[in-house]
C-alpha cells in the first residue's frame, strides 16, 4: 500500500492519491505517514480531508506528531486544535516541547487556553486528566424528537454520542440515557420520562484511574460521567482511553512484582539514568536483606566444613522454595487486584494452598530423592549417602509447603495493612522463603545427621 | 440498600420493593441478589421487569445462576433463553451442569438448539466462541430514513446498535457504518453513499482472542465484525467482552512468568489437584536444572572447605543476580507482548541494558563492599579480609551486568524462535543467571585469592 502511494506522489497523481487515501481508516493512514520521509508525509497529510487528517494525527507517535506540527503554518495549527478532541489535545500538549506548546497555545482561543490550563492542573492518572469535555448533554424537558434533532445538529463535536447526560441549569448531573434508548423510544416521549436518574455510575474528578477502570469492567460501560464534589458534570471518559489504562495498570503491577518502581513511560522512552533509578532501590533492599541468608549459613559454617557436600544443595533448595513461593504469591496478588478474592478469604486460601503444596511437595521430594540416591550414583559414580538424600528431600518437602503458605499470606497481609501487594509481596517473597529454606535445612541436618 | 429491600420483603410491601428495584442498574441488582437467602432471591428476581431480570441474571456468578435457574419453572426458563443475549446464553450453557443444560436446551426452539450446537463447536478463546449473532445489519439500498426506522423496529434484539453492518444477499460483509454517521446524515441519503467499504477491520471466526484484543486496542473499536473464510458476516464481538479478554491474557502472562501453566478458571474455582498439576511441571524442570548449580559448587568443594566463609555469600550473589535478571526480563517480556518493541530492536535494547546495568552494578557493588569491609567489622566484630570483600563485590558487579544482558536476550531469543517469551524466559531466567553468578564467583576466587 505504502509503495503504491509513494509511486502516486512520484508521478504527481494527487487526485488518484487522495482517492486512495480517503478509503483508508485513520489508524492505517497514521501507520503509512510515520513510515515515509518528511516531504511525502506532509504531502499525504495535506491531501486528507480535515476530519480524517486530524483523526490520523491523533494516532501518531509523539515524535511523528512533533515532526509534522513543526512544519505546520499557523493556520494549520489552529485547524488542528479546533478539530482535535479535547483529551487528545491535552495529551498532545503534555508530550510536546516548550516551543511547540507555545505555538499551540498561541493558536488557541482565550477560552480554550483557560480550559487547557485547568486540565493540566489535574493530577496525572486522575479522572480529570483522562476526561474529555466534548460530551452530549440534554435537558430534561426535551422530547425524544427534539433530542434527536439536537444530536444531529451538535453531535459532530462530541467524542461520544452513544450516551447522553441530562443536566440541570447548574450543570448538576440528573441522569444518563443511552442513544440506544433514545432511538428505541417514541418521538413524542419526554426525556424526563425515560432517563435513568437513580443509581448512576459516576467517578469523581480526582479518582485514580484504577478505580475508573474497575467501574468500566464491573458495569460494562462504554463511557462514564465525571462529576466534581458538588455533583456537577465536568466531563466524560470513554472506553478507548480505559483500555489503555487497563494495560498501563497491568504493566505497573508486573513491574512492581519484578521489584521495579513503575516506569511512567514506555521502555524505549526512558533514559538509562532514570531506568537505573527505578531499579536500584529494591535491588539494594533485597541485597541487604540477603545478609540474613549469609548469617544463617555463617552460623553453620563448622557443620558445612565437616560435610562440604551439603553446600551443593543450598541453591537447589533456595531456588525451589523461591519458585514455589513466587507461584502462589503471583496468583494471590493477581486475584486480589482483579477483585476475585479479598483479605476475608484468607482461611479458604490457606486451606487450598496447603492441599496444593502437599501434593506438589510430595512429588518434588520423591523425584529429588530418587535422583540423589539412585541416579547420581549410577550415572556419575557419585555416592550420596542415604542420610544426605533423605535430609535434602525432607527439607525440600517442608520448604515447598512453607513457601506456598508464606506466598499466600504475604500478599494478603500487605493488602490488610493497606500496602500494595504487588509492590510489597512480589519482590520480598524470594528473600523470605530463602531464609526459611536454609533454617529448615540446617535444623534437619543437625537433627538427623551425625555431624 | 440490601437491608431496606429485605425489610420490604419482611413487611410484604412488594409494590414499594418493585419501585425501589427498577431504579437500580442490573449490576447492583445482581450484587444484591447474590447476597440474600434463596427465598428472598427468588422474590426479588420475580418482581423485576423481564428485561432487567434477564440483564441482572447475566451478571451473576455461575453458582448463583445455578441456584436461581434450578428454581425456575419451564416458562421462566423459556423466557430467560429468549431474552438473554446469545453470547451470554452460550456462556451460561458452558458453565452449567448437564441436567440444567438439558433443561435449557428443552426450552429452546429447534432453530436455537442448532445455533447453540454450532457455537459450542468453536474452539475456546477463538472469535467464534466470543461473538454474538445479535448484530444490526442493513442493506445497501436503504435510505438513512428507512435505516433509522428499521433500527427502531429491530434494535431491541441487537446487543450493540452503535455499529451497523452492511451485507449483500449471501451475507458477505460489504461495509460498516457507525450509528453516529447514520444520525448525523440527512434522512434522504442512501446507505450506499456513506458507508465505509474499504479497509474494514475484521477478524476471522478462528482467530485467537489475543489477536482480537490487539485490533480493538489498535483501532479504538467498540465492536468488530467476525467473518468466515468466505468473507460472510457470522457475528460481532463487543468491547465489554474484550475488556475481559485483555485481563485474561494479562493474567495468563503473569502466571506463565511465575512458572505456572495458565489456569483456565479463577483461582477459587480450580480444585487442588488441577492446581497442583499446573504448578508441578515447571517446578520439576527448574529443580532438576538447579543441579547445574550444585554441580558448579561441587567442583569447588575443596576451595570452599579451605575458606568456608566464602559459602555465606553464595545466596547473596545468586539472589541479586536473579533479581537483576528478572527486572530486565519482565520489562522486555511485557514490552514484547504490548508490541512496543520487536526482536529487531535487540541491539538498541542491549545497549540500553548495558548502560543501565553498569550504573546499577557500580552502586550495588560499592554499597556491598563498604558493608562487608567496614560495617560488618565495626558492628559485629566480624573481620572480612579485604580480598574477600573485594572478590564478592567484584563478582556482584559482573553478575549484575551479565544478568541484565541475559535478562534481555532470553525473551528476545524466545520470541525469535517463536516460543512464548512469558513462558520460556520468565521461569528460566533465575536458574540461568544463578549458574552464571556461581561461575563468575569461583573464577574470580581462583584468580584473586591465595587459596
Automatic annotation (TrEMBL), chains A, B:
Transmembrane segments: 356-374, 386-410, 422-444
SMART domains: CBS, MgtE_N
KW Magnesium (keyword) present: yes
CDD domains: CBS_pair_Mg_transporter
CBS domain segment(s): 131-194, 195-252
Membrane topology: Multi-pass membrane protein
Cross-referenced InterPro entries: CBS_dom, CBS_dom_sf, Mg_transptr_MgtE_intracell_dom, MgtE_N_sf, MgtE_transporter, SLC41_membr_dom, SLC41_membr_dom_sf
Subcellular location: Cell membrane; Membrane
Keywords recorded for this protein, A-Z: CBS domain, Cell membrane, Magnesium, Membrane, Metal-binding, Transmembrane, Transmembrane helix, Transport
Source organism, top-level taxon: Bacteria
Function recorded in the entry: Acts as a magnesium transporter.
NCBIfam families: mgtE (TIGR00400)
Oligomeric form and interacting partners: Homodimer.
PANTHER family: MAGNESIUM TRANSPORTER MGTE
UniProt record similarity statement: Belongs to the SLC41A transporter family.
Protein name (record): Magnesium transporter MgtE
Gene coding for it: mgtE
